[in-house]
Every structure is written in C-alpha cells, then in structure tokens.
Specification:
The chain has 523 residues and is α/β, with parallel strands linked by helices. It has a domain of 219 residues: Rossmann fold (3-Layer(aba) Sandwich). The protein has 21 helices and 15 strands. The strands form 4 sheets. Strands 3-4-14-9-10-13 form a 6-stranded mixed sheet, with helices on both faces. A 5-stranded parallel sheet has the order 8-5-6-7-15, sandwiched between helices. Strands 1-2 form a two-stranded antiparallel sheet. Strand 5, helix 6 and strand 6 form a beta-alpha-beta unit. Helix 3 packs across helix 10, helix 5 packs parallel to helix 6 and helix 17 crosses helix 19. The longest helix is centred in the middle third of the chain and has 22 residues. The chain is globular, with a radius of gyration of 22 Å. The two termini are 40 Å apart. The structure holds pyridoxal-5'-phosphate. Pyridoxal-5'-phosphate binds next to helix 12. Belongs to the threonine synthase family. This is threonine synthase. Keywords: Amino-acid biosynthesis, Lyase, Pyridoxal phosphate, Threonine biosynthesis.
Length: 523
Amino acid sequence: MKYKSTRGKANNYTFEQAVLAGLSPDGGLFIPQSIPKAPSDFLTKWASLSFQELALEVLSLYIDESEIPRQDLQDLVNRSYATFRHKDITPLHQVKDGLYILELFHGPTFAFKDVALQFVGNLFEYFLKRKNAGIENPADRHKITVVGATSGDTGSAAIYGLRNKQDLEVFILFPTGRVSPIQEAQMTTVLDKNVHNVSVGGTFDDCQDILKGLFANKDFMSKYNLGAVNSINWARILAQTVYYFHSYFSLLRSLNITPGSEEAKKIHVTYSVPTGNFGDILAGYYAHQMGLPTSKLLVATNANDILYRFFRNGVCEKIVGDDGGVHETLSPAMDIVVSSNFERLLFYLARDAAVDASVPESEKDTKAGEIVNGWMVDLKQKGRFDTGAQVLAEAKRIFDAGHVSDQETCETIRAYCHPKDAAQAPYVMDPHTAVGVTAAQSVVSKIDSQNVVISLSTAHPAKFSEAVERALKDQEGVNFEQFFKAVLPKEFEGLMTAERRVTVIPRAEEALVIEVIAKELSC
Ligand SMILES: *Cc1c(COP(=O)(O)O)cnc(C)c1O
C-alpha cells in the first residue's frame, strides 16, 4: 500500500514516509492510495481473534509485507498492547439493553490515545533501529526529536509511548497552569532521560503556534530531524481502526450470535464517538469502508459544535469570539475549533460526491484534492466553506451528529451512576464518554437489543475527576469520597507527590523553546 495526499499533489509515499513525515509536502494529510476491503470471509475468519491477532490482520492490509514483515508487525503489536491492563485490551461493557460502552482507557495513561500512541512509539523505534543497524558511532546514528504540544491527553500518551526509546527524544509543550493537575503530574513524573517537558507561559494555541513555527523552520527541522505524533499522524488513525472490528465481534459474542448469520444482519450498530480532532471517528469511517457493518457513525460534540453544524447543513463555519472561538467545557479534550483530521473525510466526500461524474477515474484524486484545497483556503480566508447538497447527502448516509451541553453531560454522569432501574448496575463515566452517551440517546430514536449503540469511552473517570465530582457531589446521599476511592486506579496514588522534571519558560516564544531543546540535547 502506498500513500497519497488529500490535496491531490503528492503520492507514492511508503507507509514509513507517511508516518515519519506527518504532513504531506503539498500541505495535505496522508491517506492510503485506496481503502482496502477486509477479506470477503472476514466475518467468520476474524470473529474469534484476540485484539492483537485482529490488529495484525487489519494493519497488514495497510502495511506491505516488504515494508514490515508480518512477524515483525506481530511483534510490534504484541509489545504495544502488553502495557494494557485488561486482557481484552478494549473491553466492551454492557450498561443496559442495547447500550454498550467500549472502554478504550485501559492503557498506561488512562485515555484512548494510548491505543494508538503505544503502537506509534514502537513503530518509530522500529524504523530507527532498522536505519541504524550496524552504525556504532553515536554521532552517525539517525535520531528523531519528537516535538508535540498538548492541552492534556496527547502529551502524556506520547510520553508513555516514547519513553526510554533509543535514538528518540521527546519534547512536550504544555500551557502553564492550563492542563489538569493529574495530566500535568502524569507527564512530568516520567523521569526517563529522553523525555523533556516544557511548561510554556501562554495558552494551548500559543504552544501550537510555536510548534508550527518549529516545523516551518527548515534549518531547525533538519538539524534535529523533527518528528510529529499529533493526531494527523496516519499510524494513529490506522491503529484505532482495530477496535471498531474488535467491539463488533465482542458484541455478537455477548449476544451469542454468529457473525455473518441472518440473525447478525438484523443487529444494527451505531457507534457514538466523543469527537475533537476527528481522529477517533475517522478510524470508524475506515472500518466502515473496509466492510464492517455499521448502521451510523455518530459524531458527538460538546458546545464546540462546528462538526455538528456541518452535518446539519454542509457548511463548515468557524465561530469567532473573544476567546478565539473555543468554549471551555467539562470535556476539554474536545474543545477544538477546527478538527484537523476532518480534511481526510472531506477528501473522500469530495471524491464521491463533488467531483463531476464525467471526470475520468485517473484524474479524480487530483480533482478531489483541488476541491479540498479550495475549501481549506476558504476556511482560512473567510472562516467558512459550503460543500453543497450532494456532499452533505453523502456525509449523512454514513454519519449523524449530536451536540451536548455541560449540563446534559453532568445529568448523564449522574443518571448512570445512580440508575433509576434497580436492575441496572451503576456505571461511572468520564465527561467525554458522557457526551457520547448523551448524543446517542438524543439522536438514535430507538435503542434496544436489535438497535444497538456502542458508545466509545475515551477516558477513565478518575482522569477527569473534577467534572465527575461536580456532577455527583450535590447529589443527596452520595458519599463522594468513598465512592471515588473505589474507582481511583492505584497508578494514581502517590502521583501528585512523586518527583517531577519540567523546564518552565516564562513566555510563549519560539526562541526560548529552541534554546531549551538545544540545551537539553547537548547534555
Ligand atoms: C483526544 C480525546 C478525544 C477526542 O478524540 P479525537 O480523535 O481528537 O476526535 C476525546 N476524549 C478524550 C478523553 C481524548 O483524550
């Protein structure tokens, strides 16, 4: 499989190139040359595979054997998921008739980004090892300096994915005082020599601007061989595709239904996905295009609802405000104005619904790339673009969307923690997960044993304990302290007081960050 760009001007990249480069030279994102179909008998052949075995099957459709031999790929997968605490890696938990929670938070940092970043870390290491085989002199070895900006989850997941890897250095910029205390502790208590936390006096957007500046700085780029692990990295999307298949098989197994059977065909599955940068749900789109039976992919947003509005009218429109247009919500990992991965979906929508039918097959990609480029220019210059009725219709064939307020988020957390139905077991969910569940309840007209919702849980509730506490504490008769002790993972004990390593820079200036990187790498 080779990779091409969403802007239509670059193609024929290898998987390795696509993963290491992050962004395509024409400004687009890498996507596979074509979306592979799962084997025609996958519903029976894959049904009883473990997560790791399934990952091997899915990934090998996108990674040529000549690039990564099958045995090596299996090793990479096995090592990546050996750090997870649950034997199913991404277990499916039934909360009531027809409603299932896909728990993606059993990795080292308790958020779903681990599923991808554990794999990406090993992948980077694998590529470097191969390049460096036989090179003894440290000065001659290929090295990658990963620089990332985070408002929370990406930073800790990247650090845990890359810690202690040879020839890799990782710098994470985060805005001082603006990440949650637990997230900050998770990042800064990692003391491995190759991990460098930089606390930047500014906002998350300032950190991102510095990052963009560094990647545009050709001298700096080549001197340090910068690598990116942000959510547009293709390998992250790919790794996430696996749990859509895995959860479908888990569902049918729990219902005692044979995949591919007539009975199975009667089960309609909607995946509800708490969405920020559109990476998680995009993986669902790939799974769907590969052949996974899905009824709808539901984009669940909080008050930052540009995507929700898109799926209503086909218009992507930034709301501008004093705060840069971002609303601060109880689900901060989804507080995003423009979702970076959405461009990948736009490419497919443009190709399938905006390119004129008379355009020959061989020119469709270029044409779709031009259309996407035009939309992106409009978004930058006018703050909006309109994709038209056909694109909207194509989008709605596969997706639906809902938006959820903070108040509704809290109500949902409460409702599942204290179910009215005595037969239903209490379940504590984090605020992001609650956005997904709430959206499903308001959008899916009937949820029952045939119309199933699999709602993706993107974080452990203890990771966003402030919001969970806020939702639960004015409840009469709840002993919050006691209750929370019961769900708090043992890994969080002592985290707040553990030794930390972090460099603080007082102002958000690129030059100061460059200074820190140069200094840390010279020792
Ligand atoms: C990153 C994140 C999301 C959003 O996922 P995207 O792939 O960016 O859409 C949702 N919830 C949590 C907890 C996250 O960390």
